[in-house]
Write a structure and sequence with these properties.
By secondary structure, the chain is an alpha+beta fold. The chain has six domains: 113 residues; 89 residues, Immunoglobulins (Immunoglobulin-like, Sandwich); 81 residues, Sandwich (Immunoglobulin-like); 68 residues, no CATH class; 80 residues, Immunoglobulins (Immunoglobulin-like, Sandwich); 83 residues, Immunoglobulins (Immunoglobulin-like, Sandwich). The chain is 16% helix and 41% strand.
């Protein structure tokens, strides 16, 4: 066969092989045949598509060059040569048609490799029943398929069908995004393909349909409230993606005092000021946040009705404390504020002084200037007269069996008639400021409430604590031995009775130093001495004393007073 005829034949064979491989790939006909050093057709095209394209072009050029051209002499072509030339011309046309088909098949395969098939219609006959996912426009679905652990490193994930080009693959993760504006009811087909080429060749697919439904939409508002008010807030969610589940947005918390239960936020907020509820609605694997803000305004406080007394000294009613957020202003709405007193409109305080015997009852009203309008009223009674004073000792001591005694309570006599009251306690009485205490047989602590009232409404009261001590006793070690130039101590002494007892130590010995600490006697002397008397004394707050004598002996420190050279040597055998 002439060389020019051989070239079209080879080109024709290669073209048919290309068409066959392209059809096999497009119909997902996988075989065990490997092409080009073990590569399957998919990998072969992915790696050598440019070389194939150039090779096809070279074959086309070779055919064109090898094909003989029709030539005519002056006498015209001979019949034999003319027939052969026509034959080559017809063959050239057929070869060119086949080469064009081969080129188109290769181009189609490359396009499939790059973008996946943009298919429409029901693909269940090819890929089995799909998994349907409802999604709204503007939402995306992310999926990372899982495989047997021994295959993971060999697997490549791609989209064999990617209708509408809504899917992308990054590594092994598939992401599907429904474009905004997509009509509700639209269905997209996506086929996920996992392929491995070594050490064995195999592939698997998953068929997923995405049905476009109404997107998840959330709404809800809350009005401002006054502190202490309850909230019962049910946000609204509409979607075609299934049941909506509400939860607190990740990374946030509900305002203190609120809880989320079955899609309803309820409770009593404990905070003041701007509050934010951040929720996330989830449906069909999609989610959307709802941020709702409202303000909790402080509740107006009026304080309690009260009476203030002045004895020519400045006095004030209690400040009415309110939150700065509501801006409360106070005004007189009933009665007349007496001379010498005034009202602070910002605090609701009435203050002043007077020594005039008088009584005025006034009502003040507070009104808020911010937030929901609130009002509150308070009644204040103002009384004044010359001052009344009363002073009493905080604590008075006596002890069991002690003789009767008295103590005085000081007061000013320049006032109206006075009435004295003392707590009803047996053995205690008061007359014009003199408190008399009897003899008590039982120890104990008593609170004496002494009250002085004036006919003009003043009252002064003081509290004096009466402590009746038990008999004071002290017991403890009677001797103490120690080394010279070192401090020694006894065991702790035991003191019973008395109150707020204090332990002290004393001695007439000049060289002995003594002290008391933690109920123990500590002593030290620089020189040996014996039979030193130390008196340990306990003294109570009520004036009782009890003592214990301790005999102290101070010994020299143990040392050798002789040298070994002073001994005698004798024959001992």
């Amino acid at each position: 066969m002439p060389l020019p005829a051989l070239i079209p034949a080879i080109a024709s064979a290669l073209a048919w092989i290309g068409i066959d491989l392209g059809i096999s790939y497009l119909t997902s006909d996988t075989t065990d045949v490997s092409y080009v050093t073990g590569l399957d057709f998919h990998s072969f095209l992915e790696s050598y598509w440019l070389s194939l394209l150039l090779y096809v072009l070279m074959m086309v050029m070779a055919v064109v060059v090898a094909t003989p051209k029709q030539q005519y002499s002056n006498n015209g072509p001979g019949p034999r040569r003319s027939g052969r030339t026509n034959q080559f011309d017809n063959m050239n046309k057929r070869i060119l048609a086949l080469l064009i088909a081969c080129f188109a098949a290769l181009s189609c395969c490359i396009a499939v490799l790059d973008n996946g098939t943009d298919a429409t219609g029901d693909l269940s006959s090819t890929y089995g029943e799909p998994t349907n996912i409802n999604m709204g426009p503007g939402y995306q679905w992310t999926y990372t398929p899982e495989f047997p652990e021994d295959l993971v490193e060999y697997i490549t994930v791609s989209l064999e069908v990617n209708e509408g080009q809504i899917g992308t693959v990054s590594g092994s993760t598939v992401t599907v995004f429904i474009p905004l504006g997509t009509a509700v009811g639209t269905v997209f087909d996506v086929v996920i393909k996992a392929t491995m080429t070594s050490p064995v060749q195999q592939s698997a697919t998953q068929y997923v349909t995405f049905t476009v439904v109404n997107a998840l939409d959330v709404s809800g508002t809350l009005n401002d409230i006054i502190s202490g008010s309850n909230i019962d807030f049910s946000p609204i969610a509409t979607t075609g993606m299934g049941e909506v589940v509400w939860q607190v947005k990740s990374g946030t918390t509900l305002p203190a005092g609120l809880i989320l239960n079955d899609g309803t936020v309820s409770g009593t907020p404990t905070g003041i000021g701007l509050q934010t509820i951040s929720l996330t609605a989830s449906a069909g694997g999609q989610s959307k946040d709802l941020i709702v803000s409202f303000t909790v305004w402080s509740a107006i406080n009026s304080g309690e009705d009260e009476i203030i007394y002045s004895n020519n000294k400045t006095v004030s009613s209690a400040e009415i404390v309110n939150g700065e957020d509501i801006g409360v202003s106070w005004a007189l709405t009933s009665g007349e504020i007496p001379e010498g007193f005034s009202l602070d409109s910002s605090t609701g305080v009435i203050s002043g002084s007077s020594d005039v015997y008088q009584e005025s009852i006034v009502t003040i009203t507070g009104t808020t200037s911010h937030g929901p309008q609130q009002t509150a009223t308070k009644q204040i009674t103002i009384r004044s007269e010359p001052g009344l004073a009363l002073v009493s000792p905080k604590t008075v001591y006596t002890y069991v069996g002690a003789d009767p005694k008295t103590f005085a309570v000081s007061f000013n006599s320049n006032s109206s008639d006075r009435t004295w009251i003392i707590t009803n306690m047996e053995g205690v009485s008061i007359t014009e400021g003199q408190v008399s205490l009897g003899t008590f047989n039982e120890p104990g602590e008593h609170s004496l409430r002494i009250t002085l009232r004036s006919a003009w409404g003043q009252m002064r009261a003081v509290t004096t604590t009466l402590i009746v001590e038990d008999v004071l006793t002290i017991t403890g070690p009677s001797t103490l031995s120690l080394l010279a130039e070192q401090e020694g101590s006894t065991a702790a002494f035991t003191v019973t009775g008395g109150s707020d007892n204090v332990l002290t130590a004393s001695t007439e010995d000049v060289g002995l130093s003594v002290r008391m600490a933690d109920g123990k006697l500590y002593a030290s002397d620089n020189s040996p001495d014996k039979d030193i008397t130390v008196t340990v004394t306990a003294t109570s707050a009520g004036g009782q004393t009890a003592s214990q004598d301790v005999t102290v002996d101070v010994y020299s420190q143990l040392v050798f007073t002789s040298a070994p050279t002073g001994g005698a040597i004798i024959y001992a055998v």
